[in-house]
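Narrative summary of target 7.
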Amino acid sequence: MSHTAHIPSHRKPRRSASKLALRAGVTGGVLSTLAVAGASGAANAAEPVTQTIELPTLTSDLASQVAESADATQQAAANYQLQAERDEAFAKAADQAKKDQLAAEKKAEAKKKAEAAAKAKAEREAAEAAASRSSERSTLSTASATAEAPAPASGSVGAVIGFLKAQLGDAYVMGGTGPNSWDCSGLTQAAFRQAGVDLPRTSQEQSTFGTPVSLSNIQVGDLLYWGGAGSAYHVGVYIGNGQYLDAANPSKGVVIQDLSGYPASGAVRVL
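Modeled conformation, tokenized:
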């Protein structure tokens, strides 16, 4: 016995028989297991290994993803079809716009040609009318030179009548005051201005200017009017021998006419 054996803290604890038996059993079990595993591994090494792999079944999430993919594919196809329809509609619209533009250009060209033709016609007719008036003026001038009307050769009345005859064949234009186109009151106003008389501008005013005279006592140079005094619509100048000179209308121009064909309503003596 050790000289310190009597001290409790220096004694080695004794292992009990039960613990030793348990440890022996565990060790034996482990060795047995290793032996069995080794035998099994040798056996497995001698035989080929076969294994069956089962495909996983579709879960609800996977099925949902497949459905969404199909919907997306279908939507994409619909979008492509819609785009194709839009492209086709756009192409048709562009083609129609081109056709409409060509039609409008043809219409404009036709209108331009028609306007040019109308203008040429109007110019031709105007030239023919001017030539006709010139011829008529020559004829009337010749006729007035041989007329029996006792138009004075001098004096205020002579100046008025001379001016009027010089305008024979001029055109009638509403509002015209000369020198080559006149309306009725514009011509008489210009004629009496040659005698120093300033007539009003309109036929209504001229019909009340001067001294009223009866149609049975009219003299050369008297102003004739048609319509009521103060509301006359036409005027002319008496030149004798039952005739008067006036700017009649657009178809006649400045002419000499017979009172029997178009009797006046009244007369005033200005000179």
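The longest helix spans residues 60-145.
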